[in-house]
Protein: Hydrogenobyrinate a,c-diamide synthase
Amino acid sequence: MNVPTEPWPLPRVVVAAPASGHGKTTVATGLLAALRRRGLTVSPHKVGPDYIDPGYHALAAGRAGRNLDPFLVGAERIAPLLRHGASVPTPADIAVVEGVMGLHDGAVGRRGYASTAHVARLIEAPVLLVLDTTAQGRSAAALTLGMAAFDPAVRIGGVILNRVGSPRHETLLRDALAEVGVPVLGAVTRAAEVAAPARHLGLVPVAERAPESLAIVTALAELVEATVDLDAVLDLARTAPALTTPAWDPVAAVGGPAGTERPRVALAGGPAFTFSYAETAELLAAAGADVVTVDPLRDPALPASTRAVVIGGGFPEAYAEALAGNATLRAELADFDGPIVAECAGLLYLGRSLDDVPMCGRLDLSARMTGRLTLGYREAVAVSDSPVARVGEGVRGHEFHRTTTDPQHGEAPAWRWDEAEHGFVTGRVHASYLHTHWAGQPAAALRLVEACR
Structure:
């Protein structure tokens, strides 16, 4: 791989907000689609561990949506990962980075670490602040000024007003923001806002409703074209300094392929398993694997010559009956003798049942939906040797689920965090609720490929 190393004046902008629910995803996705419709090559990125927004970003931009999460991969990798994502498969004309939660909200108790503001500093990008202006006037200017002053190293270069009530309301807001010297680059009325269906804390994944998702992205592009000054956004993005850090390189990260053989590794995909980072497949390929995709909803068998399987997260509860209906693949996975790595939804799929619907039966556990959301970053230590971790090895991950398993861990647990054991290691299977980003622990990819032998 030819890794870019020279300074690159990549235009880039971070779309942020004072809190969740202000319309970041609406604006970011609409911007990506509108800029692409102008003929620009746009690189989409998302702050934090979110898997769903990047799916909409990818649909809007026509290339993989990628995450920038200092907690999961380390602050030192954020700019290199941005440059990598903006370089493949072709160099982008602009990068649009959607933030997470409020601008200054990050990992709990870490003073803004892994926040949108933190990432904006790491990639030296100006911030485009999206404001829900419902029931406020001049206070919007005070809020913007406070957001900027809280961390002077974060440059708020413009504001997009969202849910504006009337032309008079818009004039009041524009006048107030002019007083504090922050330009308004767009205004979206309440009537014009485009809604997308939600599940848990985010949108319904793109793969679950592809035609409707495409229609939403098209509507968002038209909304942004009609309400946002795209030329002003481009001018703002061009104020970012050149990227001087070399691009992240998956080959360098794993140290090269594990031997000359290219074992086939199947990654679960399709509507039921949409939670996967683009770098996972890149690292496996760099480690020497032949990476293929299997859809447990539709494919009756693993691809021929599969030597290992990676099953990521998703919303299997929405597809439990259909997954159960694919009995031949379930049986094959129950008897598969190669390494299997499963995260969250993958864990549930490998169990005996999910809400009394039969699953693969590879793991001796039952799972059920609950009314409780388990969510947050985790610092874990491996308790058992497995195809992806060694005892005592520390990793950082993220939990996001509304299910529980019985038992909650196996006789050989996968991880320990918060003074409790979690997950299952049995034979060559490693399964737990923990989502990890392998760019932060690239040895996992190399070990999995080596374990194929």
Summary: The domain at 12-239 is CATH 3.40.50.300 (Rossmann fold). Residues 198-202 have pLDDT under 50 and may be disordered. The first helix runs from residue 24 to 37. The radius of gyration is 22 Å.
